């Protein structure tokens, strides 16, 4: 025994036997703490806790609860040899009053009906209400001492601390992994979207998309068919995030692969419908608009598959037409309830078409008012004389100053005939 230990014993008037027991308990707690700190798996932490608790005190039955602040309840982490034990205990159902240890054999106590009254003997509240330990009797029918309870409280708190640390580390690892996956998905998606706005004789065209998350389900594209024909595409996949982005990438791949063999717009969109329908869940669908601009005839032939109709402004008569000819969304029905129809317009100097997804008209201004379709039509009419680039930037500025609909992507294309 060291001089320090002798001094402690002398000054505090602790019996040698009690002092040795206390010292041994502290050493054991330190060993248990080191063991818990070296464990990462939550189930292994709880397994070791059960071994220490049942082995040290010859307890056959126990239940360990963790306090969940979000539920204001104690949630069962681990139990042994309880046939009837509550999985969740409301904090209001407990009545510990001044004492943190309750003898459950007292049949008049309100806590008794929460546990198996034939087995559970004590309920022990951990410090700061972090957890709850319920234990049965000892195998040799020995009584628990005050030191026993202190020891049980200490190792229970160590187990809960290790359990929570493991959970936080696991969540952080999942978060880092998800961020890495999102970064990879974003890089892939950026490769799939147009790198530049195309240079088309006698036309000005500009487009971009902005995802609410790292990746999104909006899709737009400019595809050169030949020297006279350019395809313009804008689509919105139901949902957002990685699932929507995956559908978007598959949609783009399916569309471009068809263009090597098929030029009929009706046939292409019917094939896309079947592909999306066969390879996605029932609640996944796509609003899809696409058309081909012939720069020699200045005709734009299109199909609207349930998408927000692009706004067509005609300069010579200052009229607005919505490009809504087509049919239903793609990926929801197969076979289709009816055949898609073709729409066609002819552009003259000063005419423009504004393509967009619903993220724009569902954004809210500072007063909470939606920038709806009527607002967008009025905007086009009042700004028809400016360039496509200027209109694009003004609309983007308006939406950037607004509160977008939660988790909604925004895509905008402006095409103007010079």
Walk me through the topology.
Elements: H1 3-12, H2 16-37, H3 42-57, E1 62-68, E2 73-80, E3 88-90, E4 101-103, E5 122-125, E6 131-135, H4 146-192, E7 203-210, E8 218-224, E9 229-237, H5 241-258, H6 265-279, E10 286-294, E11 299-305, E12 311-314, E13 319-322, E14 326-327, E15 343-346, E16 352-356, H7 358-361, H8 373-382, H9 388-400, E17 410-417
How would you describe this structure to a colleague?
The chain is α+β, with helices and mostly antiparallel strands and 418 residues long. The radius of gyration is 35 Å and the shape is elongated. The protein folds into 2 domains: 3-169, 2-Layer Sandwich (Beta-Lactamase); 181-417, PPM-type phosphatase domain (Phosphatase 2c, domain 1), CATH 3.60.40. The termini are far apart. A hairpin with a 4-residue loop joins β10 and β11. The strands form 3 sheets. A 6-stranded antiparallel β-sheet has the order 3-2-1-6-5-4. Strands 8, 9, 10, 11, 14 and 15 form a 6-stranded mixed β-sheet that branches. It has 9 helices and 17 strands.
H/E topology pattern: HHHEEEEEEHEEEHHEEEEEEEHHHE
Whole-Å distance between the termini?
98 Å
Structural class: alpha+beta
Low-confidence stretches: 1-14
H/I helix tally: 9
Residues in helix, % = 25-40%
């Amino acid at each position: 025994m060291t001089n320090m230990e002798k001094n402690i014993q002398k000054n505090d008037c602790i019996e040698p036997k009690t002092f040795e027991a206390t010292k041994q308990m502290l050493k054991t707690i330190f060993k248990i703490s080191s063991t818990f700190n070296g464990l990462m798996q939550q189930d292994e932490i709880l397994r070791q806790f059960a071994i220490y608790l049942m082995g040290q005190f010859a307890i056959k039955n126990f239940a360990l609860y963790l306090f969940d602040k979000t539920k204001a309840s104690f949630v069962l982490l681990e139990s042994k040899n309880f046939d009837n034990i509550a999985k969740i205990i409301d904090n209001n159902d407990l009545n510990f009053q001044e004492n943190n240890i309750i003898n459950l054999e007292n049949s008049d106590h309100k806590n008794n009906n929460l546990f198996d009254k034939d087995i559970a003997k004590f309920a022990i509240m951990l410090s700061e209400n972090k957890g709850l330990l319920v234990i049965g009797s000892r195998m040799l029918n020995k009584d628990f001492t005050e030191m026993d309870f202190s020891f049980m409280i200490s190792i229970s708190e160590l187990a809960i601390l290790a359990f929570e640390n493991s959970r936080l580390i696991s969540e952080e690892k999942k978060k880092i992994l998800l961020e890495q996956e999102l970064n990879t998905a974003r890089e892939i998606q950026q490769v799939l979207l147009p790198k530049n706005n195309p240079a088309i004789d006698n036309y000005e065209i500009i487009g971009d998309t902005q995802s609410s998350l790292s990746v999104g389900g909006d899709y737009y594209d400019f595809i050169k068919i030949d020297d006279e024909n350019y395809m313009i595409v804008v689509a919105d996949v139901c949902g957002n995030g990685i699932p929507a982005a995956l559908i978007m990438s598959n949609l783009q791949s399916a569309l471009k692969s068809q263009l090597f063999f098929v030029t009929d717009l009706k046939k292409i969109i019917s094939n896309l419908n079947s592909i999306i329908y066969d390879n996605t869940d029932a609640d996944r669908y796509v609003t899809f608009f696409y058309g081909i601009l012939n720069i020699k005839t200045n005709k734009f032939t299109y199909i609207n598959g349930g998408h927000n109709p692009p706004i067509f402004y005609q300069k010579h008569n200052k009229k607005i037409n919505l490009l809504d000819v087509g049919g239903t969304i793609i990926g929801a029905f197969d076979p289709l309830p009816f055949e898609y129809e073709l729409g066609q317009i002819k552009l003259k100097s000063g005419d423009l078409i504004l393509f967009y997804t619903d993220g724009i008209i569902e954004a809210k201004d500072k007063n909470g008012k939606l920038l709806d379709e009527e607002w967008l039509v009025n905007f086009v009419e009042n700004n028809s004389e400016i360039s496509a680039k200027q209109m694009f930037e003004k609309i983007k500025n308006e939406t950037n100053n607004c509160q977008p609909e939660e988790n909604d992507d925004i895509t905008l294309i402006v095409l103007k005939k010079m």
